[in-house]
Amino acid sequence: MRATYMYKAGDVRVIDVPDPVIQEPTDALVRVVNACICGSDLHPYHNLPATPGGRPMGHEFVGVVEDVGGDMSTLRKGDFVIAPFAWSDGTCEFCREGLQTSCRHGGFWASNGIGGGQAEAVRVPLADGTLVKVPVDVDSALLPSLLTLSDVYGTGYHAALKGGVRAGTTVTVIGDGAVGLLAVLSARQLGAERIILMGRHKVRTDLGVEFGATDVVAERGAEGIAKVRDLTGGDGTHVVLEAVGHMPAYEQALGVVRPGGVISRVGVPQYDDAPVGFPSLFGPNITLTGGPAPVRAYVDRLLPDVLDGKVAPGKVFDRTVDLTGVPDGYQAMHEREALKVLVRP
């Protein structure tokens, strides 16, 4: 079959690899119907060192079950499924607590011998605990929105939930990528009173307004912080959802959060030395939270509104490619010519 591998920064190739096969009785084989390129995939695209043999890519996909192991009980061949970006058993104490990204027996796609989602098929370990069956056909117009439940929608929701967004909350969202825009949507769903989106790409921020942003701040750094402070009477907002992962975004979050507020980070941090001392967090009683979203815990909660058409998170996809076009898709996202690229193997 064909699969996407990255060999070093900027070097993405679609190559032939062996077809996946059932290895454990708890496995399922899934034929990928839709996958995508994530903003976090751009981190290795920018800085991956030379990697002999390459590394498989992709952690978001939906598809059809092609085969199941002998111990499978909830799925059968032909089921359409959503694959959260972490696989998990669904039974350990962390899974039962809704923290599947810390599953004692789980892991992540494209690592430790498990293939990536930017491929024609994937072997899914612990499939009963991981995969979510959905009653749709493979030609459903809802597929792009269902695909967001594998990562970016659940991640935006996780940011808002961990931030404590509720009715009456004021929120700043930093980042106009797919996660930031779906954090806007999630904050609106949780009842935020005011949502300030910090982003400078108008096509994206216009979608953010459609999703529920009440204000857009295009300025960055000190100028952007001053603008948010001005919009909030000098106080800043109760919650800041940081969906970028770079130090300037974290510094911006510190600048716009109000005393007693919460910074919720879901952008994968590309730094190790974020300030957390007296002047930054301790003195003004600011809470820092966030982390990898246990999206498996949120799929059942978010799925009904997607199926009913009440929300359309799939609008974050603005370009579609086949597997052959995946390298161009990476380049388009790198150049900010595409917000999020859908892949149809």
Could you list some keywords that capture this structure?
29% helix; alpha/beta; 7-stranded mixed beta sheet; Quinone Oxidoreductase, Chain A, domain 1; globular; Rossmann fold; 6-stranded parallel beta sheet; 345 residues; 2 domains
What does this structure look like?
By secondary structure, the protein is α/β, with parallel strands linked by helices. It folds into 2 domains: 2-151 and 294-343, Quinone Oxidoreductase, Chain A, domain 1; 156-290, 3-Layer(aba) Sandwich (Rossmann fold). It is built from 12 helices and 18 strands. The protein has helices at 42-47, 93-96, 127-130, 143-148, 152-162, 178-189, 202-211, 221-231, 247-256, 278-282, 296-307, 326-334; strands at 2-8, 11-16, 28-37, 55-56, 61-68, 80-83, 86-87, 107-108, 121-124, 132-133, 170-174, 194-198, 215-217, 237-242, 257-265, 287-290, 319-321, 341-343. Strands 3, 5, 6, 9, 10, 17 and 18 form a 7-stranded mixed β-sheet that branches. β1 and β2 (11-16) form a beta hairpin. α5 packs across α6 and α8 (221-231) runs parallel beside α9 (247-256). It is globular, with a radius of gyration of 20 Å. The mean pLDDT is 97.
